[in-house]
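Forgive a beginner's question, but would it be possible to get any protein sequence you like and the tokens describing how it folds?
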Amino acid sequence: MDKDNRSLSGQQRSHYVRIPGSERTALPNTRKTGPVNPDEEMSVTVLVRRPPAPSLLKKTDTPPFSLGQHFTREEFAAAHGANESDLKKVEKFAHNHGLAVKEVNPAAGSMLLTGTAASFSKAFAVELAHYEHPNFTYRGRIGHVSIPQELADIVEAVLGLDERPQLKPHFQVFEETEEFARPNKTRISYTPVEIAELYNFPSNINCSEQCIGIIELGGGYNPAELQQYFSSLGVAEPAITNVSVNGATNQPTGDANGPDGEVVLDIEIAGAVAPGVKIAVYFAPNTDAGFLNAITTAIHDTQNKPSVISISWGNAENQWTTQAMKAMDRAFQDAAAVGVTICCAAGDRGSADGVNDGLVHVDFPASSPFALACGGTRLEGSGDTITQESVWNEGPDSSTGGGVSDVFDLPVWQTSANVPPSANPEGRKGRGVPDVAGDADPATGYQILVDGQRTVIGGTSAVAPLWAGLIALINQQLGHPIGFVNPTLYALSTRGSAFYDITIGNNESSRESGAYTAGPGWDACTGLGSPDGTNLINALQSFKTSSGGILMSGHAPAEKHPIFGHTLSNERLPFHVNPLSLHGPLVHLKGTIKKVEPDVTFHGTSHYHLIINHIELISIKGADPSIVTDECFCAIRYGDKLGLGQPIEGLAEGQLIELQGEYIDKNHAYPSLGNPGDPVLHFTHHPVGFVIYKGKRYE
């Protein structure tokens, strides 16, 4: 951290250092109206480091689909919560400056401090003032936040000193205008149930075991009105729980064009497309601190336990501090660890994301590699038939967001997606947004009941709860949360009809120098495309059984305490990019055949199943040799282009055999057909494995 030698209130701060990425500037068109009352009571969130978990970052590397290998929330808190000694150091610092610790969330590594403005100004070496914007006033600061040198390696972020509105809702109420009155612009609207039918969502799955978390930063809903709405659709009303974060509650404003429209849109879409689902709505203040606390509350909620979270709020990356983005991204990594999918709206104002600086921008938090970014389309069809679907673009203030991140690097799982360089002059190669899409054009929008009005609403705000509902259906059908699904979706995109590929349109905006165009495959307007819900679920189920016998349909994973992360190897190995890989280390071993199981046929090809003991380890790459035990189960594929070139002759018990393949240690291997629960050696075929038996090599 940089040294900060400023003087504040006559006190020398030479022992203070700046928090990197904490710098704030005043919002455009604002004026400073005066200092904050020193006795004003306020609250601030401090984010504390946690024990390192380097394998967590590898979740962005490869298609995992190691189903059932998520932490429980309790396990995560125990293994990766903040260190008690670090929390006590921050608590001591707070007390020394007249601040109180109101809440501590060890799992998230966050502490909520309360006190007076004067105490916070002194504690963090900031000057707090009131600012007036044409649309609102706010308490704010300019410059960096600073902390004592002894906390430099402990405190990662301090949020909430500045309470400017941080995020914008990404919804649009349809309004009849001359632009939409053009002859070639057909005006259509759908109920969420009709949208689900067009996207082939299964209608026979009851999601009563699932909970969708929804983040809201203002407004509210009327319970009686929701009951009326779901009754009119013939859909059971979801059980809704309100969760207050930092004092915010369900407070309808009575204005359908305000935040009420967002809240009700999210609930009515998610509840309609995932029948029977439970919904937990996390109400929080619209600040960076409120947003972070809402997210971490939802992720680590041991009572409601949402398996998917829908976020329809965001802002262009350049409107955030770096410390805030890192804090949110860290929270999204927590979500991946505990099996929670994060669905985020990609923005409603084209490739400029509403920023008038002549450049393109993507929306955060959708740009986090751990978020499922949801872009927008214009959808036309009836019944279960889509007649046309194109990129949603009705101008700079009514079109899908999308592009290339200026902050986050290109994830490995997007390297084959042909993400273009940024349209900005430097042509940066970064994280591509969005990942998926759905209907968002207000002119083909969703019929909603809000504040006594039946209206039509669109925007990518509608797409996030739409995909959240689909994820809930998937989780219910698979029997466990799918969690961080991005790498798997990119692997599935080449496997058939899980997506409707959108190839018409662009998200060009008059505000920027370049834009992005739809085309075959992934694009920076609609990602992989819009969903075919049933085909996607079938593809995921097929993908689940393609792991060489490790996980098979009808065999639920046992409860284990896995090594943290989807990547089982301590390093990323080249063969991990193969969709059949489970991302274990590469092991070469010798052993004695203890048992030969009858051949089995699944996923369209044949497999030998063996149990081998008296193992002698020849070599291992990607893990410590100690993980290899005396006995393992082997799945050897043959009879197709991926398996061994020819059958193995005369396999018999008591014979020596030598194999190379991917090793799944006991903590990650689950009982399957013929396997009593031993570690597993699979992938003994293309591209990394081989078998040597009675002097003959098979590969």
User: Anything to note?
Assistant: The longest helix spans residues 460-478.
